[in-house]
Design brief:
The protein is mainly α. The protein is 78% helix and 0% strand. The chain has two domains: 114 residues; 68 residues, Winged helix-like DNA-binding domain superfamily/Winged helix DNA-binding domain (Arc Repressor Mutant, subunit A, Orthogonal Bundle). It is globular.
Length: 188
Amino acid sequence: MSGPLGLQCYVDNTPEQLNRAAARFVADRHWLGAFVGGLVRDPHAAEDIIQEVWVRLASAIEKGNAPENQPAWCRGTAKNLVLNHWRSKRDSKTITDSRTDESFLDRVDLAFTESETDRGRIEERLAALRTCVDSLPQKARTVLTLRYLQKQSLSEVAVALDLSEDAVIKQLYRLRRALLLCIKAKLS
């Protein structure tokens, strides 16, 4: 049986430490995916980077170099892979400062580190968001679904709903604002 990320080759005959690391990696994968996906903005490249992080983590554990803080280690490894990805995608006309790239990634990493301490609060906010979305009229939920779950462009949403792009932009703005106010009310 194949597990998430093709981990089947590690599940049956590996040390318990690798199994725990795999379970933790899968549990935290959405955080790593958000970190990498937000930086790379290419789902295929992001998935490649995430899988490479797993390969490097498993290799480190097999060599007896298990990280103490696995999520931070994974983000650090992903950060280096993202930098490599950015460098490989630059054309000759683009001039950037690699120190600036690294500084930016360090700040993003710090934000994710801080968010690890706030996971309970984040889960509470997600629950409030779910409740608020459920309370919206069906038409509003359809707009959100098309744009954010199905990841359709503004023009595709406009065509699907027989609206102008400007109308879709205004609706999305109003919906995001209403959801923000609803979440704040539920959490206070």
